[in-house]
TrEMBL record:
It comes from the Bacteria. This is DUF4374 domain-containing protein. It comes from Sphingobacterium zeae.
Length: 402
């Protein structure tokens, strides 16, 4: 089932691979790679994992310096990094549309290898969706799939599966189903026929005995059917007592159905959802207070004056969240920091690393250079770390491997 086709190599990666061909023919011995961090990047011709023991030292991370691992053959396109999750040193990705694979970086006599160590084959199309990271453990990952939710016309609901994957042997421990009601009115196409509306889940969070799903309904032209913000709440893990919250003070709940989340929970388990704003091209934030089943009508943070770029929202603690490129005091509706201004570049990382009170993100400078920056949450300061090869076109993940 594994795809072995390689889609091409950039010049510096070719140098790395050619050096491997001259290695002596010895039995392969593999051990886990002891490196601390990996940076998942894309070039014009492929995808690579750049590894390092220190992401804040003055060094260059590049496939050309024997620290780059070519993973192009594991992905149909570079953007499929959005369907990947890295946890406890393992990479979990959906790489061929059905199989959920577990990979690890291992050291061989020929160099670093991105090795599949196990997989699970789904019976139908599958790409990794939202991950309930607060419940994922060494032994289990809790996640959804991407794509449209299955419509049950008889019950007039959309069913969204939540999978509980045993990471030891890559088998499903169980599957739960969220049952989100269909629209209570009919949508018509321009020709007068009924439009089979679909549901797009953009975020999933679980806390305090409740599961929350941010979502919007869209039509056959892939456009939201209305400008309301929707969220579904139900008991967890029973999935009973489901209820839809809606709000027309903002527009539809932002986001895609892949790994990125467009919601976060604060330290008191209040849910914040990023939505589109009433003004085209803008964003807003809505809140659902812990234990409540409706949006907080006293809270709306309209971000129409700020160049929010979405991405994987992150709760930083100390009352702050990261919504690229801004650090926001969400309760007080205040911008604490603009990382674009503080770094002089464009923070672009899809999934950032948060560690020891710091946020790590990749920044592209106006001169098209790339650097990792550390944002100190408590001190509200930034520091420049390792440089990333200028041949990179996108930085998707910054991950800690051990």
């Amino acid at each position: 089932m594994k795809k072995n086709r390689l889609f091409g190599f950039c010049a510096f990666a070719a140098l790395l691979l050619s050096s491997c061909k001259d290695s002596p023919n010895v039995p392969e011995v593999t051990t886990p790679e002891p490196t601390e961090y990996s940076v998942w990047v894309a070039t014009a011709n492929g995808s690579y994992l750049l590894t390092t023991d220190e992401i804040m030292k003055d060094t260059l991370l590049s496939p050309a310096n024997n620290k780059g691992v070519d993973i192009t053959g594991n992905l149909p396109q570079a953007r499929y990094a959005g369907y990947a999750y890295i946890f406890n040193g393992y990479y979990y990705l959906s790489n061929d549309g059905t199989r959920f694979s577990k990979h690890q970086l291992v050291q061989t006599p020929q160099g670093l290898l991105f090795k599949e160590v196990d997989n699970y084959a789904f019976p139908s199309d599958f790409y990794l969706g939202k991950v309930a990271s607060q419940f994922s453990t060494n032994d289990e990952i809790v996640f959804t799939s991407t794509g449209a939710s299955d419509a049950n016309l008889e019950k007039k609901i959309f069913e969204k599966d939540i999978y509980f994957m045993n990471t030891k042997d890559m088998t499903l421990n169980k599957t739960l189903k969220a049952q989100i009601p269909m629209l209570d009115y009919t949508v018509y196409k321009k020709d007068g026929t009924v439009d089979p509306t679909i549901l797009n889940v953009t975020s999933m969070r679980v806390a305090g005995g409740k599961a929350y799903f941010g979502f919007f309904y869209y039509d056959s032209d892939y456009k939201p059917v209305n400008k309301k913000a929707y969220a579904y709440i139900c008991d967890y893990p029973s999935m009973a007592n489901g209820h839809i919250m809606s709000d027309d003070r903002a527009s539809y709940v932002a986001g895609h159905w892949q790994r990125e989340n467009y919601s976060f929970l604060d330290d008191n388990n209040n849910l914040y959802l990023l939505t589109r704003g009433k003004t085209d091209g803008t964003f807003a934030i809505l809140r659902v207070n812990n234990g409540q089943t409706e949006f907080d009508k006293s809270y709306l943070y309209d971000l129409k004056d700020y160049a929010v770029k979405g991405g994987d929202l992150a709760w930083l603690g100390d009352g702050k969240a990261y919504i690229r490129p801004y650090v926001i005091d969400v309760a007080n509706k205040r911008i604490v920091a603009n990382l674009a201004e503080m770094t002089g570049g464009d923070p672009t990382t899809t999934i950032n690393l948060i560690q020891d009170g710091n946020l790590y993100t990749a920044v592209k400078t106006p001169a098209s250079k790339w650097f990792i920056y550390e944002y100190n949450i408590k001190n509200n300061s930034v520091k420049k770390g390792a440089e990333i090869d200028p041949g990179v076109t996108q930085v998707y993940h910054i991950n800690k491997l051990k």
